[in-house]
């Protein structure tokens, strides 16, 4: 258990910080799920989301194709 300071700050217990690899400077995502406040290290969040779009269309490939089409149309004028 921890207490919120007058500045809205809280201390994450050392055991939890060690378990999750939270060090000074670690970014923490803060979200609300129902009536719960969820704190999640950003590195952990990125790892969970990594590959979520794997196999989907490449935004870079789509952008390159759009630019080539734009160039083709421009040259036809």
TrEMBL record:
**Molecular function, one GO term:** DNA binding
Q: Which residues cross the membrane?
A: none
For this UniProt record, give its keywords in alphabetical order, as a comma-separated list. Answer: DNA-binding
SpoVT-AbrB domain boundaries: 1-44
Q: Which domain of life is it from?
A: Bacteria
**InterPro entries under this entry?**
Repressor-like_regulatory, SpoVT-AbrB_dom, SpoVT-AbrB_sf
Tagged with keyword tRNA-binding = no
Matching entries from SUPFAM superfamilies are given as: AbrB/MazE/MraZ-like
UniProt name for this protein: AbrB family looped-hinge helix DNA binding protein
Name the species this protein comes from: Silvibacterium bohemicum
